[in-house]
């Protein structure tokens, strides 16, 4: 294994990773930085429980090698709020009681935030195509939460 030093920013803080450049970002976040909000589920980038933002885009961290994010900015669910103020999507998620088991919810929230950055006035079809898989099937509540957050953010009709 070739050890490599990789610098990046995580939740606004400069970080330095030193290890296997092929290691998935997920494991650096969870085991190296103890940011356990990002979840491991499928390990294949299919479900979305591991979704984080890199340079503002939603990505699946379980299959993304550290070497591919050198110099970039990563935001996890722990970095989404501003101080003690929740992001509008997080607040709407609580108000709409979206989570059932809750395991995939951090990935769902991160996907929803990225969707609202990309699509000013999301439709049901936009939401359906952008959201992660959820075993509990709380999609109707998630959709309501996304519309509520968009309205609060001033981007919905």
**Total DSSP helices:** 5
Average pLDDT reading: 91
- Within CATH, the superfamily of the largest domain carries the name Beta-grasp domain
Overall tally of domains: 2
Helix share, percent = 25-40%
Tally of DSSP β-strands: 5
**Intertermini distance:** 53 Å
Indicate the CATH architecture of the largest domain: Roll
What is the rounded Rg? 16 Å
User: Major β-sheet, in short?
Assistant: 5 strands, mixed
- The CATH class name of the largest domain reads Alpha Beta
**Secondary structural class:** alpha+beta
Strand content: 15-25%
Assign the CATH topology of the largest domain: Ubiquitin-like (UB roll)
Order of helices and strands: EEHEEEHHHH
Keywords: 2Fe-2S, Iron, Iron-sulfur, Metal-binding, Oxidoreductase
InterPro entries: 2Fe-2S-bd, 2Fe-2S-bd_dom_sf, 2Fe-2S_ferredoxin-like_sf, 2Fe-2S_ferredoxin-type, 2Fe2S_fd_BS, Beta-grasp_dom_sf, Diverse_Oxidoreductases
Organism: Usitatibacter palustris
Enzyme class: oxidoreductase
Describe the structure.
- It is a single chain.
- The longest helix is centred in the last third of the chain and has 14 residues, at 105-118.
- The protein has 157 residues and is of the alpha+beta class.
- The chain has helices at residues 25-32, 88-95, 105-118, 124-130, 139-152; strands spanning 4-10, 13-19, 51-54, 57-60, 73-75.
- The model has no long low-confidence stretch (mean pLDDT 91).
- Strands 2-1-5-3-4 form a five-stranded mixed beta sheet, with helices on both faces.
- It folds into two domains: 4-79, Ubiquitin-like (UB roll), CATH 3.10.20.30; 88-152, [2Fe-2S]-binding domain (DNA polymerase, domain 1), CATH 1.10.150.120.
- The protein starts with a strand and ends in a 5-residue tail after the last helix.
- A hairpin with a 2-residue loop joins β3 and β4.
- The radius of gyration is 16 Å and the shape is globular.
- It is built from five helices and five strands.
- The relative contact order is 0.16.
- This is Isoquinoline 1-oxidoreductase subunit alpha.
- Keywords: 2Fe-2S, Iron, Iron-sulfur, Metal-binding, Oxidoreductase.
């Amino acid at each position: 294994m070739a050890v490599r030093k990789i610098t990046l920013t995580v939740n606004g803080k400069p970080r330095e990773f030193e290890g296997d450049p092929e290691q998935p970002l997920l494991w650096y976040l969870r085991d190296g930085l103890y940011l356990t909000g990002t979840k491991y589920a499928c390990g294949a980038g299919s479900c979305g429980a591991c979704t984080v933002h890199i340079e503002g885009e939603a990505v699946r961290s379980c299959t993304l090698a550290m070497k591919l994010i050198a110099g970039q900015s990563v935001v996890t669910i722990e970095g989404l709020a501003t101080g003690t103020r929740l992001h509008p999507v997080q607040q709407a998620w609580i108000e709409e009681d979206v989570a059932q088991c809750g395991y995939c919810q951090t990935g769902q929230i991160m996907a929803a935030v990225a969707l609202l950055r990309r699509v000013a006035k999301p439709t049901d079809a936009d939401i359906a195509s952008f959201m992660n898989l959820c075993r509990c099937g709380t999609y109707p509540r998630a959709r309501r939460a996304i519309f509520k957050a968009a309205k609060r953010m001033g981007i919905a009709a």
